[in-house]
Design brief:
The two termini are 38 Å apart. 42% of the residues lie in helices and 15% in strands. Helix 2 runs antiparallel to helix 17 (482-517) and helix 3 (93-105) packs parallel to helix 6 (144-156). The protein is α/β, with parallel strands linked by helices and 604 residues long. Strands 2-1-3-6-7-8 form a six-stranded parallel beta sheet, sandwiched between helices. A five-stranded parallel beta sheet has the order 10-9-11-12-13, sandwiched between helices. A hairpin with a 7-residue loop joins strand 14 (558-562) and strand 15.
Amino acid sequence: MIKKLFPLLLALALLASCAPQRTEPLPYPEPAASEPGKTVAYVPLDDRPDNVERVVYLAESLGYTLAMPEEVLYRTALDHQPKNFDSLQRGEPWSLFTWVLEQEAAGCDRYILSLDQLHSGGLVSSRSLTGDDLELPGGGTCSASQLVEHLLEKLAEDENNVVWLLDSVMRLANVTVGYEGARLEHYNWLRAFGAQPRETLVGEDLTVENVLESYWRGPNGEDPYDGAARQMGAVSADGYYQPYQFISEFIESRERKLRLSDEVQRILARPGYENFRLLIGIDDSSLEDCIQKNEIAFLRRGLRTEEGEDGKQLDWLLSGVDDLAFKAVARMYLDETDWVGHSVNVQYFGNMEGQPACEYDFQPLWKIVDEHFQFFDLLYGRAAELYVLVLTQPEDETLKQAYVSQLLQTLKDRRKIQQPTILIDASNGTYGTAFYEALTKKAELGYLLAYSGMLDMAIVTGTALSHGVARYAVLKNEESTDCMDRAWARTLADSILKDFCYKGVVRNDLLTYIRNDLGGDPNNFWDPELDREDLLRRLEEGMEKESAPVIHNLERSSFLSSIPFNGEPKERRWGGIALENYRFPWDRAFEIGVDIRLGEFSDG
């Protein structure tokens, strides 16, 4: 018996010795995290991970180096949290204006600038500020509109500058829970008011003044305030709901936002701004003819759609806000590498692509995908090399497992023939954690070009396609270096680990613990003040347990490192992965930050 077992044990030992060995993760940040690249001066929307570290990863994966201002200049602080300069809950536009001019003086010629940050100090404050004057930390004020106009004029003086401006259409509710005293009931009521149908403006009627008047008129002249009050079931004896004072602020902030956006479009319409690009994102919306409808139509009229070289579109208005920087970085790379577009094959699983992915979308899922394909110059083709798989909500609840099985089989088939694949989970969590468990057990996660899911549904498409199409272009151009590979790996690992492990499991445990055991608010750990060290410890323990199988999957994966136009695709193998320095960027449970350490990759 021993003689029979010995050859088998020897064979297993030989196989084990030939198998790729896990490489130990290097310290983070790595001594040479990226090679010196083309510098992009970047003013973020705010300090959340989607606007900071994930943009850094994406930029480095494309050979760029991001220059960014100090965090205190663009940070958002919720109520009772430490403020910037001891007085501001928002970013500081005047200092950012000065910082951008310093980059210009130093010779920078690439810019990605958030207008919400430069106009208002960030996304959250753009929803609440009224009037044009901005308070400065040391006293005094400055004009938001004049500040940005002067900045754009200075950048336009250098014809070599390429400037991406990121703007947004304000969401239906202008308040943010935990900011300037706003509570969930305020948000819900104002969203109900914003979601009420308005009269439709078309043609010459689409003016700023008419759009502002339409805030107060329904399709038949009715008052949207009354409709919202009836919907909320909360009308007081005198006919007015308690937070009526919020309505006037709501209208004033929307007016400010629309006028500032209009002014930027007017500036860009002047001669000399042909190297500027404007990308507007639509924040949380609704399928109804809501308050955003006329705003969107008005801003769409001002887009420069056929004024670039060869009639290329210069300005875009797309669904999603938190993915704006991803789209700008990716499109900047495509433009600089003479991207001519490629064909793409998209396949949906769940049969609900004809509906919005969630109640905060204003278009069917397929339409949002289609508009992003146009942004990236992708054409539909059944024999395409690039493949996009999209999981939708299930049309038939009893067929959930069948939808997942079909997707997994398609994913395996794409892997067998080394086909570059992007995976989008637009199911809004309707499959629970079973989908992530199936992917972890049966798919080679590290082989995906990009993945996105379990985020706000409005941005999953833009997030996945930005990362996936940019990576595909790098591989087709055969430009990838080891540093670019490592930055790309962080973008993929960050998205998968946070979705599968944190948003799928650990966050739910934290929400329950904070609400039920601590009686606290998961949207703000400072109101009432919670033991943040205890929450951080629970986060680390939960992530250590939940991330282990996902990390194991990634470490056993290969990834595409080159896709020549003529020749066989080339692959490399992942190294070891370790997670450290967990953090809650806004001291709330909604999102987390984490450093990702990677071991050396190996060829073959």
